[in-house]
Structure formats: C-alpha cells, structure tokens
From TrEMBL, chain A:
Belongs to the UPF0065 (bug) family. Keywords: Receptor, Signal. Residues 1-23 form the signal peptide. The lineage of its organism: Bacteria, Pseudomonadati, Pseudomonadota, Alphaproteobacteria, Rhodobacterales. This is Tripartite-type tricarboxylate transporter, receptor component TctC. InterPro entries: BUG (IPR005064), Bug_dom1 (IPR042100). PANTHER family: BLR4371 PROTEIN, TRICARBOXYLATE-BINDING PROTEIN. It comes from the Bacteria.
TrEMBL record, chain B:
The keyword Transmembrane helix applies. Residues 9-153 form the DUF1468 domain. It comes from Poseidonocella sedimentorum. It holds the Pfam family TctB. Keywords: Membrane, Transmembrane, Transmembrane helix. This is Tripartite tricarboxylate transporter TctB family protein. The keyword Nucleotidyltransferase does not apply. The chain crosses the membrane at residues 6-26, 47-65, 85-118, 125-144.
TrEMBL record, chain C:
The lineage of its organism: Bacteria, Pseudomonadati, Pseudomonadota, Alphaproteobacteria, Rhodobacterales. The chain crosses the membrane at residues 20-40, 47-71, 77-98, 110-137, 149-164, 171-190, 202-225, 326-347, 359-381, 388-409, 415-431, 474-491. This is Putative tricarboxylic transport membrane protein. InterPro entries: DUF112_TM. Keywords: Membrane, Transmembrane, Transmembrane helix. It comes from the Bacteria. Pfam families: TctA. Residues 21-443 form the DUF112 domain.
Length: 327, 175, 509
C-alpha cells in the first residue's frame, strides 16, 4: 500500500493544476462528503466519481471522505447536516429526497432552505420502461390500456415508498386515472433486474439504471418525463408531446450545512465548478443521460431549492402522502 | 445475587422489553394486521415476533418456578466477587474510553487506556508500557487515518487544534 | 467451449503481466490486512482504494480491487479464529468453531483449514464461473421476491439445531434478532419503525456488525475474562514442520464440508439478493446437520471452520456474476466495484462479455491467480498470526477492545454505534451467563431484513395470496428442501430411537 501512496504522491506532483487560483480559505482537515443514500446507487456513484476526480486533479489540500448516511430516505443525513451548522468541513451530495423527506417526516425539524447551496452538478431524468417482451405495448396509449385492463395486477417496481419514483408513479396514477400495485425494492439496479426478469411489469427508472438492458434489447423506454427529448433517446416522445403534463427531474446538487463561512463556500463552489467543467464529468453526464449545461450555484441555487420545495409540497399534497406510502 | 435470582430478574426484564417493543410498534400507528391485497402491514413483523419473545420469556419464567432450568437451581453467585472486579473494570474502562474519545480525542484516550491496562492492571515494565502507549496510537493513526482515510473523533475543539498541527505535518511533508 | 479456453488463456496471460501480477500481490496483502481487522472488511478496503485505481488502466484496476476483495475474504477468518471476533460479517460462522479451536491450542489447524477451504471454495467457484456464467445469469433473473423468501426459509431451516439446549431461550434469542432487524426505516411502507427514544440514529437500523462485534468482541471477551479468571491464555502453539505436515494430513477430515460449502456458496452468491454472509451461515448449518457428529460443532470441530470459509470465498466470486452480467451488485463490496467500473467507462451489463472481452477475461484470469497468491500468503503468515495468541492478556485485551471500538466506528463513522456496541455487549454477556444462546440472534439479524422484505414484496405482488410461494417452481423446490431439512434431524432421531428400542427390546424377547 505504501507503494501506492508513493504512486499517488508522484501523480499529484505531476498534476499541473493551479491551486493558487483558489480563494484564501482551504480545508484544514479531511472534508466529510455525506451521501444521503446507500452504497452503489446513483448518488453514491456520482459522489465517488467526484471524490476520485478531486484526488486525481489535486483540487483540495485535504481529501474528501465519502460517507453514506442512507437512514430513513436521507432523514439521517439531513439531521446530521443540520446539527453540523457552521462546520466548514462537511458537504452533502443530495437528490430529491432532499425535498420530499422533510415533507413526509414532519417531525424531522429540518428546513432545507437553511442549508448552504454550493452547486447543482446535474439534473437526472426519468423514463417509463417496460420489458421488451411486451409486444403489445409500444407507446403510451397501449401502455395505459394494458395497465387499465390489468388493474391492480399491474406491478410497478420502485426504489421505496417516498422515493422520487414513487412520487412519479403516484403522479401517473393521478394523470391516467388508474391504480397500480407499487412494489419497493432496495435500489434502482434491483428494480431493473426485476423488470428484465419479468417479476414486475413496468418501472420509472433513471437512464443510467436501464441503459445497458436497453442496449441489450431487454427493456424499452416508452416515454420520457422531460421538457425536450434527450439526445440519448431521440426516438422516445416526451410526456408533454403526448399531451400529458408530467415533467419531473432529479436534482443532484452539493450543499453545505447552515451558516457555512462565505470563504469556505467560495472554496467549495470553485472546486465543484472546476469539476463540473472537467472533461470527465461532462463525459459522464453525456453517457448517463444527465443534463449538465451550466452549474447553478449560490443565490440562484437557493432560489431553485425554494421553488422545488414548494413544488414538492404541492405535489405531495396533491397525490396524498398515503398514496406514496401505500398504507 | 445468585444465578437463581438473576434468571428470574432477567426473564422479567426480557418480558417487559418484549411488551415495550409491542407497545412501541403499536403506538407508532403501524399496521399490525394483514392488509387486504398487500399482505403483512409494516408493524406485523415486529409486533407478533415481539409477542413471541414475550411468550418465550413467560415459558422461561414458568420453567424457573418449576425448577426446570439448571440456572433456577443454581445458588452460586451470578457474578462471583473475584470476577466482578475484572468484568466491571473492563466494562468501565471501555465506557471511560468512549467518553474520553468525545472529550480529548481518540489518540490521547488511547494513550491513557493503554497506560491503565498495561501498567496499572498488567504491571508490565515501563519499557513495555511506553512502547504500547506510543505504538497503539501510531498504528491506529497509520491504519485508519493514513491508509483508510477515516477521520476518527478528535474531541473538543481545543484538542482538535492540537491534532491538526500534527496532521498538517503529514500533509506538508508526505503529499 | 473451445472459445472459453482460448479466452481464458488470454485472460491468464494478462494476469501474469508484471504490473498486474504486482497489483494482485499488493491487493491480496492489503485485503488480508484490512480483512483481519475486526469490523473492517472488503467494503472499506475497496471503497477507499477505489480512487487510487484511477491511475492505472481499468483492467489492472479491477484486478487490484478483486484481489483485495479476495484477500479480505481470507482475512476475515483470521480475526475470527485468533481473536474470536468476526473480522467481517462473512466470517461470523467461522467464529463458532474457530474460537474454541484456538482456545484448545489448535489455532494453527483452524487457520490452515480456513486457508485451504477458502482456496478450494474460490477455485471451484471460478471454474463454475468460467464455464457457466451466461446460463447462470439467466437463472438469476428468474429469482423474484418469492424465490428469495423461499431461499431465506431454506437458510433458516439449516440453522435448526444451532441453538442451545434450552428451547424457550433459543426461541427468544432468534426472535430478538429478528425484531432488532426491523429497527429503522421500512422500505415497503416508507415509515420509521422502533425508533427508540426518538433518536434519529435508529432510522438507519441496527447494523449487523455493531451487533456481531458487541456480542463477540465485548460480550465474549468479558465471558472469557471471567471463565479464565483473568489468566486468559490462548494456548501457545509450537509450529514446526512436523506439525505443518500433520495439519496437511487432516484435510480429508473436512474435505466433504469444503466441497459442500464451495458449491452452495457459489450458487447462493450468484443470486443478487443473498451474498456471502447467508451463504457461509447456510453452509455451516448444513455441514452440522449432515455431520456424523453434530454435537461437536460449536466446540471446535474443524469442519465448522472449513464449511463457512469455503462458502464465503465461493460466494464472493459468485457475487461477481450478477455484477458483471447484469450490472447488479450481489454484495456491498461489488456495489462499489460496480461504481468503479462505471467510472472507468465500462458498462457492466448483458453486453459486457461481448463488448469488453479483454476486461472480463482479464478479471477471470486474475481471480485464478489471486486465489493462489492469497492461499500461499496466508499459509506463510500463519506463524505470524499465531504469535498474537502468545501475548499476555493485559496487552491483548486492551488491543481487542480498541479494535472493536474503532472497527465499529469505521464502519458507520458515528460514535452512536460504539455506544450501542457496548450496551449490546454487556447485555449479551449477562444473557450468555444465563444460558441464553447468542449465535441465533446474530444469525437472525442478518437474515431478518431479507426475509421480511421478500415476504412482503411477494405478497404485495400476489395481492395477498399466500399460494404464490408454491405456485412458482423454484420457490416450491426451495420450500420442499427446507421442509426436508427441518424434518431430517427429527426423522433421524426417531429412527435411531426406534433402532435403539428394537435392540434393547430384543434380548428381553
């Protein structure tokens, strides 16, 4: 292992980045990089990629340590960050449970708008997938028809009650006036496997989780819930094109605890901006169907969080917390 | 306290624990029955299994009264006086270690912990004692902080500052 | 078939490239070291060294991480045997017999059995992997929640007889483990359950390692201190050539358990939900059930060390299969490996075999080599590991306690779990003194969440119809096996009694 260390050191020396461009403040101890989800999921993959890039590019004098706090759909992570108020050595990779968890778990005592926004790294998208064996389903209409005739026998897989995809499933139930059986699985990869193995009938997955099965011809997307067609899926219509008003994204942003020092915020914002602009990150976005045009940060991101929070409150009130938790 | 008494107390405590678990599930408003068309509710598993725990504890109580378990006939002390010291000291030392880790940080606590065991309990030579007092934290530092990039608890800000000075040296000269 | 051998040959050649061979060696050594620390397992090693691998080509990187994974699997057994604390969740079953063996001065035999069984398990598993990867991937897809639940029933069935002689206390212990497994966030209903004292930390649930280290690290250590009156002496072993040779001769004693564990481990490992821990536990249970001398298990039977070790190594190879062919991790460690592959620009999935054959075969080839390197390293290091046992107790005890505390902290990065560990440890000690068996609780907390989740998923999907479990062929087969296993000890006891009855009646007649 010591040899690896030496290799790393020499690589660091060779790296020609200019840390001098950074602000005055620099971390004095390792930075906790909290992930509000478990190992192996989308957020975890992204955080570990970013951590790897930080080391590779020698962007920080102290390492970033990824720490998973998956408890309670991110409740544990949110509370942890809240309790770390004023700490300059902790940042968190978030997803949409950033908004939904404090709404569903009212007594958590976390207001996400108090957190320090750092940078929005990407917007992830959702598509509706079915197994490619289903010859009878080729578009949204035939899908809705199939679901309606199956009724509650129609099984939709997802990553857990209260997670993003369960919100989206509930939105679809409301829009198309049908009821399905929602089965939670641990993680998007397991959902994908159960779809391919015909254990479930459909799912709303992120592109990254289905991409390989789609390329192998095991599953097919029917509709995308974006404003415009994604370059990765030029032939798949958006819900809006088909006259269904559902548009839903997953934000993947980095945030700090409340009351972070402005100098520290500047350091992290610059660091993540550099990562965002890197070839590696942009390449990852492209291959995984993420939208990464410009990095939203500072006041703009705070505004974004505020609107998203209100939007999710409305959404959950609309579909009803009960239809998400299922009981 | 004899083993006989201890078994009674433990069985009662475990019975109460089981009932407490059931109450906890129930008062959280979780569905403990069969939900139509969905199978077991969220509370079914913990609630009925806790009931099973309660019944198992009851069975132990009955067996205690009838003297069916060897423990219920055993009148030896539950924890013999000479072992009470050893066990008590071990448990207390871990407790103190955990408290100290929060106050003065992992490394200083480890030094004290080693001093206590090796010198005071073990009565080893000063050479061994000092080797352990220095060796353990250094090994822990190298394994956890350097190789595994963990950040072990550093205690109150004052002690953390002291540590950061040492940590700076590492980053200054080795990276 | 021919193409497999050509590809495998190319893969093996790749593994012997100097850089790759060096990485295999470094990975095995690092893994062995991380694995033998209580609480630290392959997950830690792989997660932490992942960024390092950005500096080398992807194939070399995965070879390094796979070697580390392998080394850690072996390493887990070392602390299970020498310290009596499971080095990783996969090595829990190794404690059951490994610790008594060490106390009887047979630590070298146990370590040797662990190394050899691991080697056989790993090798059998890679051969099966090489030959049957694609059909097995298709089989894994047939495994829905119903099959998972049936498999869990089968796992529980293998544990019949693991408990103590006091039946109500054994039942209590199993149920306690199952209930504690429910603590935390319920993914089916999305609601928090059993959040004691409203502490948000409980939302994550009670980690298996926290319980296992509490029970074995703290609880058993206190128990040992008491029974030996503070003169803990894990019998020094004099390891010479003669003894080594004698130990090699004992292989035939546990070879059957090893084969059983290897094959079982591989199949359980390939199923995405299960992973190496249930595989090792099932293998232990089965070996005990079919042993000629089941009563000696838990008291230092060498087969009790070999069976779980063969299975956990076989399963760790097996769990690479769903990762590579389906992109679904079979264990937390493979989940991180999967993340690594994505970062390197490789897309695990059904197309990986055809699109990146160099990578896949390089990995498979390196698994053969890594297995060999690890067993050699391990055998060579046995004398070093045994040295630990010769330390005086006033030095060994604090080291064990420190490793327990830091190991638990390192798995979750929170002090809360170290407190929980201490409380669990004290409780386990007090229960243990009253003849409550603790092993069933540890087993139950591993399988509990899997069993509950798959049961509820199946019933939601069948809309409450219990028949779903016997309508599906694979699940039906598993259930029948489970029933057979449960009735086996009863029947064999009954038969013995009957035979005994006949013989005792005969002379009178």
């Amino acid at each position: 292992m010591s040899i690896l260390k030496t290799m790393m050191t020499s690589a660091a020396v060779l790296a020609v980045t200019a840390p001098a461009a950074f602000a005055e403040w620099q971390p004095r101890k390792p930075v906790e990089f909290i992930i509000m989800a478990g190992t192996g999921g989308g957020a975890d993959q992204i955080a570990r990629l970013l951590q790897g890039l930080i080391e590779k590019k020698d962007l920080s004098p102290r390492p970033f340590i990824p720490i998973n706090k998956p408890g309670g759909s991110g409740a544990e992570a949110l509370r942890y960050l809240q309790d770390k108020a004023g700490d300059n050595h902790v940042v968190m990779m978030t997803l949409n449970s950033f908004y939904t968890t404090p709404i569903i778990q009212e007594d958590l005592g976390v207001d996400v708008t108090e957190f320090t926004p750092i940078g929005l790294m990407a917007m992830d998208t959702f598509l509706l997938w079915v197994n490619s064996d289903r010859d009878d389903i080729n578009d949204l209409d035939s899908y809705v028809e199939a679901v309606k005739s199956a009724g509650l026998d129609w099984k939709v897989g997802g990553t857990g009650s209260g997670q993003e995809d369960s919100v989206l499933t509930a939105m679809m139930e409301a829009a198309f006036e049908y009821d399905v059986t929602y089965i939670p699985f641990p993680g998007g990869g397991t959902v994908a496997k159960n779809l391919v193995g015909n254990q479930i009938d459909s799912t709303v997955n992120n592109p990254a989780e289905q991409m390989e099965f789609w390329r192998a011809g095991n599953s097919k997307p029917l509709v995308q819930f974006t404003a415009e067609r994604m370059p990765a899926f030029p032939d798949v219509p958006t819900a809006k094109e088909l006259g269904v008003d559902i548009e839903y994204y997953m934000q993947r942003s980095v945030n700090g605890p409340p009351n972070m020092d402005p100098e520290a915020v500047e350091f992290y914002t610059n660091l993540f901006q550099e990562l965002f602009d890197s070839e590696e990150w942009q390449g990852f976005c492209e291959s995984d169907g993420l939208t990464c045009d410009t990095m939203m940060k500072g006041e703009e991101l705070a505004q974004f969080h505020a609107t998203q929070k209100v939007a999710h409150e409305k959404l959950i009130a609309q579909v009803g917390a009960a239809s998400i938790t299922g009981e | 306290m004899t083993v006989r008494t201890a078994e009674l107390i433990m069985a009662i405590a475990m019975l109460l624990l089981s009932l407490g678990l059931m109450l906890n599930v129930y008062s959280d408003g979780l569905r403990i029955g069969w939900v139509d068309g969905r199978g077991p509710g969220a509370g079914m598993w913990p609630f009925w299994l806790s009931l099973g725990m309660a019944l198992a504890s009851l069975a132990t109580l009955i067996r205690w009264f009838t003297g069916a378990t060897p423990e219920s006939r055993n009148l030896d002390p539950y924890i013999a006086p000479e072992t009470l010291f050893l066990v008590g000291v071990s448990a207390a030392s871990i407790l103190v270690l955990l408290i100290l880790m929060n106050l003065i940080g992992t490394y200083l606590s480890l030094v004290l912990f080693m001093f206590f065991y090796v010198r005071i309990l073990g009565k080893h030579t000063w050479f061994t004692t000092i080797a352990m007092m220095i060796g353990t934290p250094v090994f822990v530092y190298l394994l956890f902080e350097v190789a595994l990039t963990k950040y072990l608890p550093k205690g109150l800000p004052f002690f953390e500052e002291i540590f950061l000075v040492i940590d700076n040296l590492r980053y200054e000269y080795f990276y | 078939m021919e193409t497999i051998f050509v590809s495998l040959g190319a893969g093996l050649l790749q593994a012997f490239e100097p850089l790759n061979l060096f990485m295999i060696f470094a990975g095995c050594l690092a893994g062995l070291f991380v694995g033998c620390m209580p609480g630290l397992g392959s997950v830690n090693g792989v997660a932490i060294l992942l960024p390092v691998t950005f500096l080398v080509p992807p194939t070399t990187a995965i070879i390094f991480l796979a070697a580390l994974y392998y080394g850690a699997m072996y390493g887990g057994a070392i602390s299970s045997i020498t310290l009596g604390i499971p080095g990783a969740s996969t090595a829990v079953a190794t404690v059951f017999d490994g610790r008594p063996m060490a106390q009887q001065g047979k630590a070298d035999k146990a370590l040797m059995a662990a190394a050899i069984a691991s080697f056989i398990g790993g090798t059998v598993s890679i051969i099966l992997f090489t030959l049957f990867a694609p059909p097995l991937a298709a089989f894994a897809l047939k495994f829905g929640p119903q099959e998972e639940f049936a498999l869990m029933l089968l796992a529980f069935a293998t544990f019949i007889g693991l408990g103590g002689d006091d039946i109500p206390k054994t039942i209590f212990s199993i149920l306690l483990g199952l209930v504690l497994a429910a603590v935390g966030f319920d993914i089916i209903s999305g609601r928090p359950r059993l959040i004691f004292f409203d502490m948000v930390e409980f939302q994550r649930g009670i980690g298996f390692l926290v319980l296992a280290i509490g029970v074995y690290g703290i609880g058993e250590m206190l128990w040992t201190l008491e029974t030996t009156k503070g003169t803990v002496k894990m019998h020094r072993v004099n390891l010479g050539w003669a003894r080594m040779k004698e130990n090699f001769g004992e292989v035939k004693q546990y070879i059957n358990s090893t084969w059983l564990g290897s094959v079982l481990g591989f199949f359980v490992g390939t199923l995405p939900a299960a992973g190496a821990t249930p595989a090792a536990l099932m293998s232990y249970g089965l070996s005990k059930t079919f042993s000629k001398d089941p009563d000696s298990f838990g008291k230092g039977n060498i087969s009790g060390v070999a069976a779980p070790e063969a299975a956990n190594n076989a399963a760790s190879t097996g769990s690479m299969l769903p990762m590579i062919t389906l992109g679904i991790p079979g264990s937390p460690t493979t989940a991180i490996l999967l993340g690594g592959m994505i970062i390197w620009g490789l897309r695990p999935g059904p197309l990986l075999f055809t699109e990146s054959p160099d990578f896949v075969w390089g990995l498979i080839g390196s698994m053969y080599v890594a297995n060999l390197v690890t067993v050699l390293l391990n055998l060579a290091l046995i004398p070093v590991f045994i040295r630990v046992l010769a330390m005086p107790f006033t030095m060994l005890t604090p080291i064990i306690f420190v490793l327990c505390v830091l190991g638990v902290f390192a798995t979750t990065d929170r002090m809360f779990d170290t407190w929980l560990m201490l409380i669990i440890g004290l409780l386990a000690y007090m229960l243990r003194k009253l003849n409550y068996p603790v092993a069933p609780a540890v087993l139950a907390i591993v399988l509990g969440p899997l069993a509950e989740r798959s049961l509820r998923q199946s019933l939601i999907s069948s809309r409450g119809d219990v028949m779903t479990f016997i309508e599906r062929p694979i699940s039906l087969v598993c259930i029948l096996f489970a029933v057979a296993l449960i009735s086996y000890p009863l029947i064999s006891k009954f038969m013995k009694k009957k035979r005994a009855g006949e013989t005792s009646v005969d002379p009178a007649a």
